[in-house]
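subagent[fold] <- orchestrator: predict structure for attached chain, return tokens only, no commentary.
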Amino acid sequence: MTKAITVRLDEADHAALERQAGKLKLRPGTLARMLVHAGLSGDPYVVGNDNARAALDRLVRRSQQRGPADAVGLVAEARVALEPPP
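subagent[fold] -> orchestrator:
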């Protein structure tokens, strides 16, 4: 069973979320969920690090190069990219 939460964003953050979601051809809520998953699956002290930025950049590039993408596969690849090295 899934649980719903409410996340309050100021205007600037909401606009940024919508812009990034548009680039990825995702709904803003879907991108927010992906970002939460990425943050929860990694080390909380490195959230926002270069690996996370690189993973998002790769998603943007892929969305611009192709038509509809496999969202599950993209999320799986992003999670792997966000995993800290052993």
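orchestrator: received. Logging for downstream: The chain is about 65% helix and 0% strand. Residues 11-82 form one domain.
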